[in-house]
Amino acid sequence: MIANYHTHTPLCNHAEGAEREYVEKAIEGGMKILGFSDHTPNPYPMGFAHHDRMSLEEMDVYVKTVLDLRDEYKDEIEIHLGLEVEYYADHFEKLLEFTKNYPVEYFLLAQHSLEDRPGDLNKEQLKDPYYLDRYCDIVIEAMHTGRFTYVAHPDVFKFLGDPALYDAPNRRLCRCAKELGIPLEINFNGLRKNSYYPREQFWRIAGEEGCTAIFGSDAHRPDLVCQPETEKHGREMADRCGLRLIDTAELKDPFLRGRTA
Fold it and tell me: How many domains does the chain have?
């Protein structure tokens, strides 16, 4: 890997290590590009809160830290400022209003929840194809906004139902990504842990649909920015699934500045 756009910081409350350590590990591992994309704070109504996200007040700290590091290490590595974003249609404009005040260069779409409050589905709901359809609908709607550079862990929905029902909604998602030219991320956090994702069934569909894939470290510790062994397994899976891998992503301005209709 020469680039990683999926990097966290301690501000999200579930990562560790100083931001500087992530940069130095990237340089040590031979990376040319490092993008910080910590979880966006949520400027939503009704007291929406999430203990695994930075607060609105911490956004200034996050931005300053990344920009200072970008300047300090400019001769050694290219650093970018991004955010990992959940898409909730009813509140997305408010999120854009808040984040546009900062020099954010890109959004990663990383949908974890279906509604505007975080919460896990129960086992029976995870067997119900309705919720898988809903998840794919949200991701597709988000991709159509044109504001996301790529989709992080697009296979993170833990569907426990009939595998035969997994194909159709995810094929819709993959066809949309292909049509819009949006890469899909093979997530090293799940791959390293041998978790339920990356789900090879998903990536076989993505390969059949001609999707582009990119690796994302999803690093929550500095030593996980570069993961050679995990990368090896990721490349093997990509080969099995017939995926076209890219090393770097074209950053899409999440605020559509400079675009014409």
Answer: 1
